[in-house]
């Protein structure tokens, strides 16, 4: 049954009997055995009473709390509701829930000794139901319970009846069963309203540490609560455990909020600190446990090295850690993403060994979050800042911890403000935090930005956003200047984030980074959620709990003003001791000092938190405050009033910091120190600002306040001079700026140089040796002033005492050491010196024997230097050997090889020895690293090679510049070289043929800033050579320029042009005519300044502005012009424009004489006349003609400047003809149409346009050639309208034809056969029928085959239409001709009745009838006469005759009535038959009467 399991175990979802200790199992078994019998007897009666008394007894709070020895369990099960209706009402109530009572037993020293169990107060009526009195009391309590629900979330009424201890224990079991039902119902309603349940993760059971033997398995488990369900992640040494990355090694399980990590076959690598992290939207919580893996004595893993003496770790191994390729000082901007990384080398490198990797910012350990992601790849640690904010600025430190030791690496990260959304707006505030959070109240603090946008910040706005939403609401209506603000009006149980925005007169800044999530809840509840339970003492102490129904709360305690500004006042107090068990709320009252009038501030809703912020107080007035408590029983007495508090800022702005002292650090940073602000309260930090001397513009060096009085300002420009100032800040604001520091030039601090290296012997005689060495890799930031050489003798391998070889420093990297003893062995060391001092000596050289060299070949060259390194070329400089050999040196050979190649890879660069001490090598491959050496030769041969150079990478470095040769306006030739990477000690060194120029007779050098100019004093052949410029104290900035004889010639020519300059002209002087016949002389200069002068000359006489000449000079376009109204005979001659602009001059002339002048004069007069003509009605387009496709001729002209009164008259040969009579201003076109043109239409056509302003005439000559041209255009249109030649067969032969749209009798056409004109005969004829042009070929033969064409003549090229009459086309046409011919013959020779017979013959009886008709046909046709379709036979009555073969006669000698009828004559021969009909009607005289 449900009551058999104690609540403190059923409360946990991971309940397991295995968790019980032996003492606990014994106590439970005794309790069950003693209560089971009585419980069973009372089960039936108590079931009814339990349901009836749920509102009174279920929430009495009498709970027995037992605790396991090793695992703490919370003493309280949950808040209990009195009934289901009470639960629902409590869930909807806006009032806070009652805090959980604490049942801890304390001794006199306030040490926890156990738990207190309040006695349950039963009654006799409990078993049998309510009595009448009890029912009445319950009804009376209903009103009190309704009032109490305003202040508490559950019914916690207590029975006041006393009962025995035994009954209390028995009835507790029944309440446990009822509590479970109530708890399940409450869980259901909580899920219906998740906001009331949401809380940060909490470890109910934490993982514990383990020590195991190697190859055993171990399991860590924990129980986590929280809503929403937390996400659990396991870490090993702060590195996320990924089971997929180590298959079979790790196993992760999660079930019912129980989470476990199982590690199989543990080994030494598994010894580590393990962390489990639980995180949800309300927060994150972690718990730690350690695992130590032990090994049996004598067992050593083969993969691990044997132990050795020295520092021994737990593994028996000393790890050596190195951090390389670290991150440097970094600069980012808000909103960007930045990654910091470093390569970590750990030796020995053990499989699966993971060091502890930690990241710190300003000595604060960073944890993985949405703002920073950490990654460890096994050899590289990376920190990614996903979204930079100014909070991310600071000193970042990477710490790698092994079992032996730890290594750290640090660098500073600067975060600049993002671009303001509004120009001039301030930067975003930073470091927004929530403090002193309570049920409905929280204090938000922040730090002021370093950038105010150019105008002082007016204040700040605080925004809040409820977790789970995206809506931001503004908390204050007016900006506040104090960097702390109390936010009220929060909803208890809800979580919020906050942000802050700054505002000045220009606008609003970007919002700050949001704060951490904060919950509006009682601090005591928050502490209980995060805290741990009291330890189990093994005691259960039972006490009585007195009833507290209807207790009016007492006075609040310790009321005080915790914060006062001119915008608000914050009060805080402690709850009263007498307040009952229900929740209490507070009323705050204020009183103006000097009066007794108390005014309640929060009249509508009492506050829940023991803190309150008052706004809208009058600045400068003094107020006193007091607080009253209230609950359902009423309002308590007020607290003691506070002292009078004057409204105003109590926290003063800090004073300005003291003296600021800058100190050199590196070539891009300066160390700034200052004196702290005096008497500064609640100091937040300092902002440092820097300004380039003379700019008066200060920029922030840090965007996050620093708390110390020393800061390194990075990101400065090398060589610039800066001044610095400092501002202090606290919550009240920023202080005044400190005094500006002294100016300091940014350059690296000077140090002594590192040791030289590469000591070698150049020459050796009996008592001296010449040594050479290489320059130190670091010269300490200053030029090396010299070297000191020491030597010592080596006797039997034992070095002696060092002796100074030179007292005075030598500047060359070669020195002769004298006073040595022959055949003795010596070692040498060299020290370099600069203005900072003498550096440490080099390592001792090898042992050299002092014996005279007698070899014939020269010694090795020395002092090899590489300069002008580019992607494919470089220049190698060297000095000749000190030892010449028997003969002088007569050349050098340069060898090259890749830096990582073997010695056998040396190869020569030059096949022929060079005589110079330098050589440009042009055979390099970009990206490859090389070394070089040099060998000298004389007549005896090639000597020993020099020491090789340091490896050189063939690349063109970014920012590399070259020497630029320039010729200025005065013709001065100079070489210019610029360098942007200068240091304060950098110098430009000019050389000719790689020897420094010290004589200024040929070249003058001038340097300013990062530019140097070498000017030739008088360029001549003596200056031919290679010129180079190198910049000291840079990364090899240098360049060269080769001045050859050809280049010298070009430069001298260019210098002459610059010394005697000419104004360039885009166009020479030209002339053009303008409107009214004006004459415009003009030219355009390509480049001329505003100070240019123009001289106008005609025939060597200067011209000036006047009525005849109008001059103009457009200085923007360079156009120069002179305008004349007309040309007179005296204007014939030469016009010249002379230009002068400073030293530059030029001129251009135009000759106008003879025909050129006359032609221009005539054209000018014509244009002037035309202009006058156009002042009245005139022809825009003169009379012309147009031939339409229909071959109509239209005479047309276009007129302008016409009006309604303007008339137009047409004339032909002096006679007026009718044309267009209507003129319109829109069209202005006049037409005269000639429909079918012929020779009679030839003539001279004229049109006159006139009105009161004048008249204009246009004439068109259409006679002779003009008419011929017109007709040719007509013929051209006719030809273009012609169709293609087609073939047609006739009974006479073959006809070729083409149709035209219009035919004119004057059209001339020519027919061609086989490209020859056809001579017409009786057999071949041509003609025209309508619009058809044809060619008839009678009786065609084979000769008539071929290509035929018809050619239309239009006076130009003409037009031909062709057709091919051959092949199938001829055969088809000829066959059709034969068919038609036969048909024509048949038609011509067939039998015919030509005529002569009437249709009807009426004749009198007894008369004679004679009819005759003509017949034809070949051969002679046969004639048959028919009567009523029957053949008539010739006899005496009918007489039929055929005379002359063409006259047929029919005679009826005596007509009678029987002769009436239809008669026909039928003629026929072999070609056909034809008939003719007539009717004979016979009448008698009597019948007619």
Describe the 3D structure:
The protein is mostly beta strands and 1489 residues long. 12% of the residues lie in helices and 40% in strands. Strands 48, 49, 50, 52, 53 and 54 form a six-stranded antiparallel β-sheet that branches. Strand 79 and strand 80 form a beta hairpin. It is extended, with a radius of gyration of 63 Å.
Write a brief caption for the model.
This protein is mainly β.
Number of strands: 102
Mean pLDDT over the full residue set: 81
Number of helical elements: 14
Overall spatial form: extended
List keywords for this structure.
five-stranded mixed beta sheet; 12% helix; disordered N terminus; 14 helices; six-stranded antiparallel beta sheet; mainly beta; 1489 residues
Question: How are the SSEs placed, and which strands pair?
Answer:
Layout lengths: L6 H4 L11 H20 L1 H10 L1 H4 L26 H9 L11 E3 L5 E7 L6 H4 L3 H17 L16 H28 L6 E7 L4 E4 L4 E10 L3 E6 L2 E2 L9 E6 L2 E6 L8 E9 L2 E12 L25 E5 L5 E4 L4 E10 L8 E6 L2 E2 L6 E5 L3 E6 L8 E8 L4 E11 L13 E6 L5 E7 L11 E8 L5 E3 L9 E5 L6 E10 L2 E2 L9 E2 L3 H8 L9 E4 L13 E8 L3 E7 L10 E8 L6 E2 L10 E5 L6 E10 L2 E2 L9 E2 L13 E7 L2 E6 L10 E8 L6 E2 L9 E4 L7 E10 L2 E2 L9 E2 L11 E8 L4 E6 L11 E10 L2 E2 L3 E2 L9 E4 L7 E10 L2 E2 L9 E2 L12 E6 L6 E6 L11 E8 L8 E2 L9 E4 L7 E10 L2 E5 L6 E2 L10 E4 L5 E6 L9 E5 L2 E2 L6 E6 L2 E6 L8 E7 L6 E6 L1 H15 ...
Parallel strand pairs: 2-29, 4-11, 13-20, 95-102
Antiparallel strand pairs: 1-2, 3-5, 5-9, 6-7, 6-10, 8-9, 10-11, 12-14, 14-18, 15-16, 15-19, 17-18, 19-20, 21-22, 22-25, 23-24, 23-26, 26-27, 26-28, 30-31, 31-34, 32-33, 32-35, 35-36, 35-37, 38-39, 39-42, 40-41, 40-43, 43-44, 43-45, 46-47, 47-51, 48-49, 48-50, 48-52, 52-53, 52-54, 55-56, 56-59, ...
Helix pairs in contact: 5-8
């Amino acid at each position: 049954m449900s009551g058999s399991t104690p609540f403190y175990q059923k409360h946990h979802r991971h309940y397991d009997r295995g968790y019980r200790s032996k003492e606990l199992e014994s106590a439970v078994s005794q309790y069950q055995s003693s209560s089971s019998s009585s419980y069973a007897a009372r089960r039936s009666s108590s079931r009814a009473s339990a349901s009836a008394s749920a509102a009174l007894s279920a929430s009495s709070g009498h709970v027995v709390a037992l605790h396991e020895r090793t695992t703490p369990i919370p003493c309280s099960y949950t808040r209990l509701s009195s009934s289901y209706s009470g639960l629902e009402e409590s869930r909807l109530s806006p009032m806070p829930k009652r805090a959980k009572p604490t049942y801890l037993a304390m001794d006199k020293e306030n040490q926890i000794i156990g738990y207190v169990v309040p006695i349950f107060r039963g009654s006799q009526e409990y078993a049998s139901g309510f009595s009448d009195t009890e029912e009445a009391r319950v009804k009376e309590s209903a009103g009190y319970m309704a009032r109490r629900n305003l202040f508490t979330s559950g019914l916690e009424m207590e029975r006041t009846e006393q009962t025995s201890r035994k009954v209390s224990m028995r009835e507790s079991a029944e309440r446990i069963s009822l509590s479970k039902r109530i708890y399940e119902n409450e869980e259901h309603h909580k899920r219906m309203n998740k906001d009331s349940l949401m809380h940060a993760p909490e470890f109910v059971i934490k993982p514990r540490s383990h020590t195991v033997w190697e190859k055993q398995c171990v399991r860590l488990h924990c129980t986590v609560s929280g809503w929403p369900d937390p996400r659990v992640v396991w870490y090993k040494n702060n590195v996320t455990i990924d089971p997929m990355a180590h298959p079979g090694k790790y196993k992760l399980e999660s079930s019912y909020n129980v989470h476990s990590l199982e590690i199989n076959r543990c080994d030494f690598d598994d010894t580590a600190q393990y962390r489990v992290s639980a995180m949800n939207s309300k927060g994150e919580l972690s718990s730690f446990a350690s695992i130590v893996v032990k090994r049996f004595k004598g067992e050593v893993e083969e993969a691990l090295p044997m132990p050795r003496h020295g520092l021994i770790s737990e593994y028996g191994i000393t790890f050596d850690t190195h951090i390389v390729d670290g991150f440097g000082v970094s600069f980012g901007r808000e909103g960007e993403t930045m990654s910091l990384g470093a390569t970590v080398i750990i030796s020995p490198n053990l499989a699966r060994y993971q060091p502890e990797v930690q990241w710190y910012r300003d000595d604060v350990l960073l944890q993985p979050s949405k703002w920073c992601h950490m990654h460890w790849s096994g050899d590289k640690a990376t920190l990614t800042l996903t979204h930079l904010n100014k909070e991310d600025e600071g000193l970042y430190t990477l710490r790698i911890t092994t079992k032996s030791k730890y290594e750290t690496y640090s660098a500073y990260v600067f975060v600049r403000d993002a671009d303001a959304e509004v120009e001039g707006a301030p930067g975003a505030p930073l470091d927004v935090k929530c403090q002193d959070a309570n049920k409905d109240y929280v204090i938000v603090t922040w730090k002021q930005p370093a950038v105010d946008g150019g105008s002082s910040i007016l204040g700040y706005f605080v925004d809040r956003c409820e977790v789970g939403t995206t809506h931001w609401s503004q908390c204050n209506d007016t900006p506040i200047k104090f960097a702390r603000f109390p936010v009220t009006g929060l909803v208890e149980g809800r979580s919020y984030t906050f942000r802050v925005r700054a505002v000045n007169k220009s606008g609003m800044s970007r919002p700050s980074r949001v704060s951490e999530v904060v919950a509006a809840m009682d601090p005591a509840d928050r502490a209980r959620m995060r805290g741990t339970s009291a330890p189990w003492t093994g005691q259960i102490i039972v006490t009585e709990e007195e009833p507290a129904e209807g207790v009016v709360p007492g006075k609040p305690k310790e009321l005080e003003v915790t914060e006062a500004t001119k915008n608000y006042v914050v009060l805080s107090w402690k709850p009263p001791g007498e307040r009952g068990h229900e929740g209490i709320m507070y009323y705050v009252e204020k009183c103006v000092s000097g009066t007794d009038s108390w005014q309640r501030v929060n009249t509508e809703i009492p506050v829940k938190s023991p803190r309150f912020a008052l706004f809208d107080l009058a600045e400068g007035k003094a107020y006193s405050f007091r607080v009253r408590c209230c609950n359902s029983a009423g309002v308590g007495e007020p607290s003691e009033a506070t002292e009078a508090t004057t409204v105003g800022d109590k926290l003063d702005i800090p004073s300005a910091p003291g003296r600021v002292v800058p100190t050199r650090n590196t070539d891009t940073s300066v160390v700034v120190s200052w004196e702290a602000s005096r008497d500064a309260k609640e100091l937040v930090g300092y902002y440092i600002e820097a300004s380039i001397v003379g700019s008066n513009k200060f920029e922030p060096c840090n965007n996050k306040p620093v708390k110390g009085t020393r800061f390194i300002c990075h990101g400065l420009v090398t060589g610039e001079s800066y001044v610095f100032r400092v501002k202090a800040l606290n919550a009240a604001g920023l202080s005044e700026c400190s005094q500006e520091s002294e100016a300091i030039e940014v350059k690296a601090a000077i140090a002594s140089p590192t040791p030289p290296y590469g000591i070698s012997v150049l020459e050796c005689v009996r008592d001296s040796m010449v040594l050479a060495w290489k320059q130190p890799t670091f010269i300490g930031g200053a030029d090396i002033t010299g070297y000191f050489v020491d030597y010592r003798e080596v006797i039997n391998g034992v070095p002696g005492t060092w002796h100074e070889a030179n007292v005075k420093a030598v500047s060359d990297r070669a020195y002769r050491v004298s006073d040595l003893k022959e055949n003795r062995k010596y070692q040498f060391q060299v020290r370099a010196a600069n203005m900072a001092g003498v550096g440490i000596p080099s390592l001792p050289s090898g042992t050299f024997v002092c014996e005279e060299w007698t070899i014939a070949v020269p010694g090795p060259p020395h002092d090899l230097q590489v300069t002008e390194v580019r992607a494919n070329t470089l220049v190698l400089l060297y000095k000749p050997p000190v030892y010449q050999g028997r003969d002088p040196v007569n050349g050098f050979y340069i060898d090259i090889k890749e830096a990582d190649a073997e010695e056998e890879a040396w190869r020569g660069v030059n096949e022929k020895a060079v005589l110079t001490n330098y050589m440009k090598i042009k055979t390099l491959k970009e990206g490859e690293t090389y070394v070089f050496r040099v060998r000298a030769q004389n007549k005896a041969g090639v000597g020993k090679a020099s020491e090789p150079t340091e490896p050189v990478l063939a690349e063109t470095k970014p920012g590399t510049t070259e020497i630029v040769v320039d010729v200025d306006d005065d013709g001065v030739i100079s070489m210019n070289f610029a360098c942007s990477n200068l240091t304060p000690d950098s110098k430009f060194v000019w050389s000719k043929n790689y020897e420094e120029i010290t004589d200024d007779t040929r070249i003058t050098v001038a340097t300013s800033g990062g530019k140097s100019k070498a000017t030739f004093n008088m360029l001549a052949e003596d200056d031919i050579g290679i010129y180079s410029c190198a910049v000291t104290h840079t990364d090899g900035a240098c360049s060269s320029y080769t001045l050859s004889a050809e280049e010298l010639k070009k430069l001298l020519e260019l210098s002459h042009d610059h010394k005697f300059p000419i104004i360039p002209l885009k166009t020479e002087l030209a002339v053009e005519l303008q409107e009214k016949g004006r004459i415009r002389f003009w030219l355009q200069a390509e480049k001329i300044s505003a100070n240019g002068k123009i001289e106008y000359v005609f025939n060597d006489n200067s011209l000036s502005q006047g009525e005849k000449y109008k001059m103009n000079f457009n200085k923007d376009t360079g156009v120069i012009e002179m305008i004349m109204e007309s040309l007179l005979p005296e204007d014939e001659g030469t016009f010249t424009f002379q230009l002068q602009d400073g030293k530059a001059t030029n001129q251009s002339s135009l000759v106008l004489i003879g025909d050129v002048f006359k032609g221009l004069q005539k054209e000018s007069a014509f244009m002037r006349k035309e202009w006058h003509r156009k002042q009245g009605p005139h022809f825009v387009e003169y009379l012309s003609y147009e031939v339409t496709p229909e071959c109509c001729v239209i005479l047309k002209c276009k007129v302008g400047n016409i009006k309604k009164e303007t008339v137009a008259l047409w004339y032909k040969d002096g006679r007026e003809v009718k044309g267009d009579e209507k003129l319109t201003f829109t069209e202005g076109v006049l037409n005269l149409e000639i429909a079918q043109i012929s020779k009679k239409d030839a003539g001279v056509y004229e049109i006159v346009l006139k009105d009161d302003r004048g008249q204009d005439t246009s004439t068109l000559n259409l006679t002779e050639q003009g008419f011929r041209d017109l007709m040719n255009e007509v013929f051209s249109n006719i030809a273009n309208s012609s169709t293609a030649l087609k073939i047609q067969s006739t009974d006479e032969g073959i006809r070729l034809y083409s149709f035209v749209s219009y035919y004119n009798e004057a059209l001339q056409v020519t027919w061609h056969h086989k490209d020859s004109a056809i001579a017409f005969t009786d057999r071949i004829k041509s003609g025209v029928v309508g619009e058809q042009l044809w060619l008839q070929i009678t009786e065609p033969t084979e000769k008539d085959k071929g290509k035929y064409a018809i050619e239309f003549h239009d006076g130009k090229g003409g037009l031909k239409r062709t057709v091919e009459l051959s092949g199938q086309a001829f055969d088809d046409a000829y066959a059709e001709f034969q068919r038609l011919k036969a048909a024509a013959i048949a038609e011509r020779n067939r039998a015919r009745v030509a005529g002569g017979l009437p249709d009807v013959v009426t004749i009198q009886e007894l008369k004679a009838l004679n009819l005759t008709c003509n017949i034809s046909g070949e051969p002679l046709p046969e004639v048959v006469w028919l009567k009523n379709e029957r053949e008539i036979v010739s006899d005496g009555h009918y007489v039929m005759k055929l005379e002359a073969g063409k006259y047929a006669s029919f005679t009826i000698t005596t007509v009678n009535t029987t002769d009436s009828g239809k008669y026909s004559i039928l003629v026929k021969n072999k070609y056909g038959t034809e008939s003719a009909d007539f009717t004979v009607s016979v009448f008698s005289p009597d019948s007619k009467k």
